[in-house]
Amino acid sequence: MAKATEIILREQAPDVEFYYTDTDKKQVYEGADFVFIQIREGGLKMREMDEKIPLRNGCVGQETCGAGGVSYGLRSIGSLIEIVRDVRKYAPDAWIINYTNPAAIVSIALNREFPDDKKIFNLCDMPYGIMEAFANLLGKNALDFVPEYFGLNHYGWFTGLYDTCGNDLMNEALLAMKPGSPETEKLNIEKSAEKSWGETYRHLVTMCNDMPGSIPSTYFQYYLYPDMMVKLSDPEYTRANEVMDHREKIEFGHAKKIIEQNSAEGVNVVADLHGRYIINVVNSLANNLGKIYIVIVPNNGTISCLPDDAMVEVDCYVDKRGPRPFNVKQASLFQKALLQNQYAMEMLVVDAWYEGSRQKLAEALTLNRTVVNLPVAQKIADEIIEANMKWLPQFFK
């Protein structure tokens, strides 16, 4: 990928100096103004394990939420802490832009490890992905939306949607989501070969009608309909297998062709949603634009029903000072209960990592709405610890 990127930049941005290394940390970080971090600790094979351990125990198997997300988070914390320490050694004033999943868990760990570091910036593109889906639905540009959104990462709600002139688009969006509306077909983002995304947006229509008045994160399909999601899953062929069989082969195939022909000519190299979002946010940060984006920040009173140390995902003005959240509307009793339960679950996961505590890991999984049953949580906890032995030595002391 690095070699293919070098060729693409040579052709499309020849003024950009590019180099890559997997050994020289000083060369990578020294003098940097921005450091972008996105890791998948253990690769897709461990993602497959994250998804299949819960499924064989009758629970949701997903990479960032449920027991799979807990496993992935535990495995990622140590490496992220090490990376941030290295960055701070060579670039003490750089903005660290962390795009690593599961953002809910790793952002808590980073905030706990580096409580005084105000230049760690945690991001997720899923809310923007939903905005793009609604842009398709309404025939608009997602970059022209001004959202009202609050919650935890992969666990929040849109309560308002406006254009840049202040026109309220929320009712229009919700009306278009009524069962049987032909407009909902525009939500199905099935441009890739991966059918699961189309299913996800069909489930979003169901959720909007089951819980009217707001637009939930698509990940609530796992928390609110866990039995259905387990029934729809194949414990022998999960999303990780789908990615390895489709997207991974396509992307590495593109890279191989670029390297072989020493040119990106004839290769469909385009910026996807994932890349567009992070660049737009960092552009606002670097150039002091003060635009509104959805960012993960310490709560500090932003969501009144959560403690200050919660890492919340909310609307923020983004300028050279970083993300500045503004207070959100009062959560409903139902939303409060969900948020407080999820907050406790995420905190217990990070406690378990620091303490090497199997007990706290089992407690976290018991609180998780995709597990709930304590004996099952204990069994999954043991399997997660065993599968991640290489990354979790503290559990074996």
TrEMBL record:
Cofactor(s) needed for function: NAD(+)
GO molecular function: hydrolase activity, acting on glycosyl bonds; metal ion binding
Keyword presence, Metal-binding: yes
UniProt keywords, alphabetically: Glycosidase, Hydrolase, Manganese, Metal-binding, NAD
Listed Pfam families: Glyco_hydro_4 (PF02056), Glyco_hydro_4C (PF11975)
Record domain Glycosyl hydrolase family 4 C-terminal: where: 149-371
Family recorded in the similarity comment: Belongs to the glycosyl hydrolase 4 family.
PANTHER family attached to this UniProt entry: 6-PHOSPHO-BETA-GLUCOSIDASE-RELATED, MALTOSE-6'-PHOSPHATE GLUCOSIDASE
Protein name: Glycosyl hydrolase family 4 C-terminal domain-containing protein
Species assigned in the record: Ranatra chinensis
